[in-house]
Structures are given as C-alpha cells and as structure tokens.
Specification:
Radius of gyration: 15 Å
Shape: globular
Distance between the termini: 17 Å
InterPro entries: DoxX
Order of helices and strands: HHHHHH
Organism: Streptomyces pactum
Oligomer: single chain
Number of strands: 0
Subcellular location: Membrane
Protein name: DoxX family protein
Strand content: under 5%
Helix content: over 70%
Largest sheet: none
Pfam families: DoxX_2
C-alpha cells in the first residue's frame, strides 16, 4: 500500500481513536470546552466525539473522502479554541503537562494540512 493510500486510513484511524476517547474518558474533554459555549461541556464532548467518528467514517470511504477531509480540516480549526483553553488552564502545572498542552497548539497546523492533502489526493477518485 502506497503512502497516498495509507494517509487517509491513518487520518481516519486518528479521528476514530479520538472520537472513542471522547466517550471513554469524557471528563478529560469536558475540562477543555470553552466556557462561553451554550449548553453543557459534556454535550460538547459527546458532540465532538460523534463528529470525529463520522468524519473518520467519511474519510475511510473513497466516495465521501474529499468532502469528509475538507470538513475535517475545518473541524481541526474549530476545535483550536479548546486547545488554547487547555494551554491557558495548564500554564501552572508541572513542566511535562504544560509542555503537552502548549505542544498541542502548533500540531493543529499539520493536522489541517494533512486533512487538506487527503482531500486533494482524493480528487477524481470514487
């Protein structure tokens, strides 16, 4: 299997694992939901978990891959405020935890680019 064939499946796997984690350990995600959002943090945790699972399924299927990958890129941009909140909330934690929280911020850029690359790589395929 070539790299271009593996890339969508790896991205789908990452999204699926993250989606499952939202249900397996929701408290972790509840804590990073920005306070200004309406509703409860748990509702947002579950909604984002469902979204990640749906995006994973969409990317895994060649017929829906391009649209799902573009939506995934937008999703990664949309969840960035949660990563910012985590970095702010964890600024006084021990160095390894603080580093992990700050490290999540720049990781969003390659994730967005990866999703866009998967979309571009799926053009003309079905």
């Amino acid at each position: 299997m070539s790299r271009s064939e593996r890339s969508p499946l790896l991205l789908a796997g990452l999204l699926a694992a993250a989606g499952v984690a939202h249900f397996a350990r929701p408290r972790t995600f509840d804590a990073i939901v920005p306070r200004g959002l309406p509703g409860t943090p748990r509702a947002w945790t579950y909604a984002s978990g469902v979204a990640e699972l749906a995006l994973a399924a969409g990317i895994a299927l060649p017929r829906t891959r391009k649209a799902a990958a573009l939506t995934t890129a937008a999703f990664f941009v949309g969840v960035f405020p949660a990563n910012v909140k985590m970095a702010v909330d964890w600024r006084h934690r021990p160095t390894p935890q603080k580093a992990a929280a700050y490290g999540r911020l720049p990781v969003q850029v390659p994730l967005v680019l990866w999703a866009r690359g998967v979309a571009k790589g799926s053009e003309g395929r079905s």
